[in-house]
Amino acid sequence: MSDNNLPPPNLPVSDQLSIEISDPPFTSLEMTDTAAEEPLPLLSNPPSSDGYPRFSSSDSQPVGQSLSDASSDTSSSRTDSQPVGQSSSDASSLRTDLSEDEFTALKMRVSYWCTNKMVNLNKLKVVMSGFTGEKLTLARIQDTDNAQDLIELLSDAGLIKQTDISVLIEIIKLCGIEGVESEIDKTWKVPKFEDVPIKHVKDHRQKLLAFGRRLNSENIKRIGQLSGIRVDKNTDPYSLILKLEKKGLLEAGENLNKFIEKIKKFDMPNEANALKYGK
Fold this sequence. Notes:
By secondary structure, the chain is mainly alpha-helical. It contains 13 helices and no strands.
């Protein structure tokens, strides 16, 4: 036997024999252990039927395949019906399993893309305002003036993390900035946005976005006058919405109903319907 074929030292004879004959179960385990030590690969998996991607911890197993379909057997405890990279109790989330560096890179790529493409940050703020709480206040959202800090607000509040970026993907989809997926793909294979269901952003936020799409420079001025809000040529539909929210005029319930009736009386039925029905 040449030096190159010597078995690894300090292993029991039975283990040495298993390695030499390349018994398939041991080969599969070796591949899995190796993959666990390497950085996460760029994923190329398609979305699953429920709109979420599936992940593999081993390069030897095709991404999106159940363990029973893999070309080699493993001793993993996962069941064939459980998507790889997802927990059975959280299959509805966009599971990512990103390393800390990959998560940081993803956030940076999204924020740089938004900056370079001059994405309307006020639109992002309107959606993000639906997640306000102890760790994410409306004041902090409205006072932030760049995409990177807005995304960091989501991260600091625990709304996006290494294992789940559902909220970020939903915000991107609702704000119509799908072009950013080419940047996300550099770190993590994003599913088609049309296949991603909206589960975290509430209906009220979506109605506010619909309202914003109905607004033009003329009715921005009229609504400003009706609401006692000063507007100028730089006031866009979503900055107006933020100002209306700051005054509590768009709070779901009685205040919103009063506001809807008011703009109806001043010949803005389409804008009123957008707020009421999201159309």
